């Protein structure tokens, strides 16, 4: 499994190169990577269907006991097959759709990178890896949505998607870490494995009534709901339609947005039964399901229609998962059917755009004759979406309704699902039928059928929907059953044979009725839109508006605090930093008792006292004398006096270095000061006295710290080691030098590298001008260059 | 001596902070030099002072015996001195170039030039 | 600055200081001294000469360009860690090959190479700073 994931990431890496070498054959070649994965997962499928699961463990950081675990169970299998299978089709499709695009190579990279992340996400068994893959999908999808980065709309939508899912991702991380900590407290074998945690939660090892678990639930849900565009985070998905169509088809119908659903399904066993978890999912999922399909019914743009109806389907899945184990079959069945028909319809939308150059479903008509194969795919997929027998969508709708049985909210949910079915059927007509029927309209006259590369994907997906519906036993039923079993944690069987579903009962009546009502709504759609126009005021207060507000609010806040804190005055920074330091350290000293500061009284020699007086006088002199050269000389004296202190206390090497450096610094300062103006007084007397106060406060603090530090005897175990080993092991009697060149040679090397960089910096600074003599804004080039 | 040197450290820091707070860039550099001295002396002090016993293993012996100046702070300070030389030189050149480009040595005026 | 006495004395000072700096470098392992101090001394020697005559003449005395010396020093210091690696120790562990001539107490090992690298880097860095500033001032 790791290999399959890495293979796809590898393909992402070489994508641009392959594209440059192979041109239009790059797409099929690159599609081999997901195809290999697809075949691998198919081979494993049999074992999964029999109720097994495949584990794989790789050492990640063995020293820390961290394993990179992979797990393939029913749920992971369903997703892995979708990711790789639809992945193959989308790569091929993208190759044809973006033919000739300058950045097609880059596009392959992003797309395959996303694919690898998504595959890793559904397969991993480690919570940290789960989060990493989760964020990778957010980042790659940011790149994909903003692929047309020259358009502002694309950039904005990409950012919006990234911010919304990114905030959710952070919440998810917090939730997962919280769970891991709980797992550690419950001393699970591996508190960072997903399966271990879920077992712990389901088995009672982790107390589900505790507040921390509830916190984790909220955080994880926040992650899942943002990712899957569930109300109130549904607004980013329609915006994400700025992405190229293959991206919409892949990310925003089949895979990425379902990552949230995957996460919910994954943790279903662990949290199901908690009122917080169930209620949130049912309520928010239900609102999304009905609300966004209603929004969809008012759209005319192809991809917006599909986007809103996708959020509504995601809402339906979330709602079903909230209903518990009974509805798991319905959720998985609908997820599977949706991935196929919605993927196909998105690709159809791309074909219509490509063949007829029209994005608005109302403005084009009669394409059936011009684009027969696209129409066939559209019709099949739309039929599945509307829930027409014998498509898989029909079975999925029935399974959904079975899932509602026994719920305490059954009545209202049945009403909701029926409303959802009606409007979904209407939307299906608009996307699958409207552009193709009737008189030739708009640009349809010049329309043409698209190339095989563009037909392959939608046709395969649409036909699979029929095959799955007609022959469910072949692959659809076991796939859905095993996924549902691993969601529910109990064996689930699925009978979606047409015979068993075709019963004249209430649910059948509702299903048929919904389709009929949907078609009627479709016919009177103009009237419908006018009748529902009052909802437009929602735009003003809706979550999308809140998003815009909070983004601009954040920007304003950042600007404001930057203006306050980063005002560009060095002394303000110094004041802030030192003032805070003095306050905090002073408080600490006060708390620990000021009388504990040791005041060692010993008998210094007279020349030592003289030396110290010299240094202090020099320091004070350097800060008060107003002649530049005098200051530099005083500085030199201070340096030499300090070097003398080093000599007295046995640091000969340091003293020698200090002597040499002091000489050189004086030379350098003279060379520099020579070119600078005389000292002038810029500050007002008040600010000068304030500065004196701060400086004295800081100096006093450092004195106290120095006294305290000298009192602490860290009777150097490190130095003892050096003292013991310098001569016998490192053959050097000067311990200081042995430390520098042997014991701590790596540090010293780092230091000489820093020195080298400083020298290069000086050289660059001085040469920069030489090549650009008139670079100065004030035209001061002459000053340094004369002579 | 410890007390005296601790006060010296404080004076060095105070003088350097005062100079860093000035508006003239040249004073800023002088402040940096003093800051380096103060910090080095602080490290030196914190290891404890031992007069006239450098950490040199006497000829023919295998290790340091008895009291001796701690070699580790000495090694740290030695490199710190050289590094602060590098920093001060770089800062000095930077200031010089900035003055040539901008035409002022007042930090407040310099700030206005990058608007 | 360019008095006759200063000029004449710097001609004699330069070689004397250079020899002294090398002595300081090599004895550094046993007595106070070492690459840092040695490099600084050598740099002061050249700086004196540059102040007495001119930067250009000081540069002419150097066998290699300063940036080459800088790179050479870094390379020597870095590569002095390699033998230890080859012998299975951590990088920068001192290796003291047997049988090399020793001058009294001064022995040769990879750490000597390292110190030479430090010497060259410090020499080059200091000279780059002082000479290019002095050039700018001329």
Strands, helices and their partners?
The complex is a heterotrimer of chains A (787), B (115) and C (138).
Chain A: H1 2-22, H2 26-49, E1 54-61, E2 66-72, H3 74-97, H4 104-123, H5 127-145, H6 152-185, H7 194-203, H8 211-227, H9 236-239, H10 245-254, H11 256-271, H12 275-297, H13 302-322, H14 328-356, H15 372-386, H16 392-404, H17 410-432, H18 452-470, H19 476-488, H20 498-501, H21 506-523, H22 525-531, H23 538-541, H24 543-565, H25 570-592, H26 606-624, H27 628-648, H28 652-673, H29 685-711, H30 717-730, H31 735-743, H32 745-771, H33 781-785
Antiparallel strand pairs in A: 1-2
Helix pairs in contact in A: 1-2, 1-4, 2-3, 3-4, 3-10, 3-14, 3-18, 3-19, 4-5, 5-6, 6-8, 7-11, 8-11, 10-14, 11-13, 12-13, 12-17, 13-14, 13-17, 14-15, 14-16, 14-18, 14-19, 15-17, 15-18, 16-17, 16-18, 17-21, 25-29, 26-27, 27-28, 30-31, 31-32
Chain B: H1 2-20, H2 25-46, H3 71-102, H4 107-113
Helix pairs in contact in B: 1-2, 2-3
Chain C: H1 4-27, H2 35-52, H3 55-61, H4 66-79, H5 82-86, H6 110-137
Q: Can you walk through the features of this model?
A:
The complex is a heterotrimer of chains A (787), B (115) and C (138). Chain A is mostly helical and 787 residues long. Chain A contains 33 helices and 2 strands. Chain A has 4 domains: 1-271, no CATH class; 289-523, no CATH class; 603-677, no CATH class; 744-787, no CATH class. In chain A, helix 10 (245-254) runs antiparallel to helix 14 (328-356). Chain A starts with a helix and ends with a helix. Chain B has one domain (2-50, 69-113): Helix Hairpins (Orthogonal Bundle). Chain C has one domain (4-137). The relative contact order of chain C is 0.18. The mean pLDDT of chain C is 85.
What would a concise description of this structure say?
The complex is a heterotrimer of chains A (787), B (115) and C (138). Chain A is an all-alpha fold and 787 residues long.
Whole-number count of domains of chain B: 1
Instruction: Please identify the oligomeric state.
Output: heterotrimer
E-strand count of chain C: 0
Low-pLDDT runs of chain C:
none
Q: What is the domain tally of chain C?
A: 1
Q: What is the overall number of helices of chain C?
A: 6
Structural class by SSE content of chain B: mainly alpha
> Approximately how much beta-strand content do the residues of chain B carry?
under 5%
Cα Rg of chain C: 17 Å
The helical percent of chain C reads 55-70%
Task: List the uncertain runs of chain B.
Answer: none
CATH class of chain B: Mainly Alpha
Number of helical segments with 4 or more residues of chain B: 4
Name given to the CATH architecture of chain B: Orthogonal Bundle
N-end to C-end Cα span of chain B: 51 Å
Percent strand of chain C: under 5%
